[in-house]
């Protein structure tokens, strides 16, 4: 039988924390929210909080050093998602996109190109505002991932 995954959340700027907790409770899956000390998060049943220092990569480093194969990581950070995938974990964006080998290289290349453009004085658009459709898509995909894990764990 497969170990129960933990949903690990890059919680500093995650807009779907409440949704994660709701779905995790339905599947009896523990949640670990990792955030810098600049963000106050409340512990609650089934949700552990880890506060790390505010340096640039502290949240990412904590997550990378504590995830296990099969865990589910929610992050907007493509670089973190790349490492998560290499560790055998599942990576989802807060909008519900599942990062995988078929899309992560493109996303990293796009991020690099936009950063080059900004460094040379160009302007780029930020992400669009989170919509109710984005939240619904996230809920649908997180539920699907957890259902698949549950079905695969049955003897």
Structure description:
By secondary structure, this protein is α/β, with parallel strands linked by helices. The chain has a domain of 105 residues: Rossmann fold (3-Layer(aba) Sandwich). The protein has 5 helices and 6 strands, in the order βαββαβαββαα. Strands 3-2-1-4-5-6 form a 6-stranded mixed sheet, with helices on both faces. Helix 3 runs antiparallel to helix 4. The longest helix has 22 residues. It starts with 6 loop residues before the first strand and ends with a helix. The model has no long low-confidence stretch (mean pLDDT 87). Belongs to the UPF0178 family. InterPro entries: UPF0178.
Secondary structure layout:
Layout: E1 7-10, H1 17-27, E2 31-36, E3 47-52, H2 58-66, E4 72-74, H3 78-86, E5 90-92, E6 98-99, H4 104-119, H5 132-153
Parallel strand pairs: 1-2, 1-4, 2-3, 4-5
Antiparallel strand pairs: 5-6
Helix pairs in contact: 1-5, 3-4
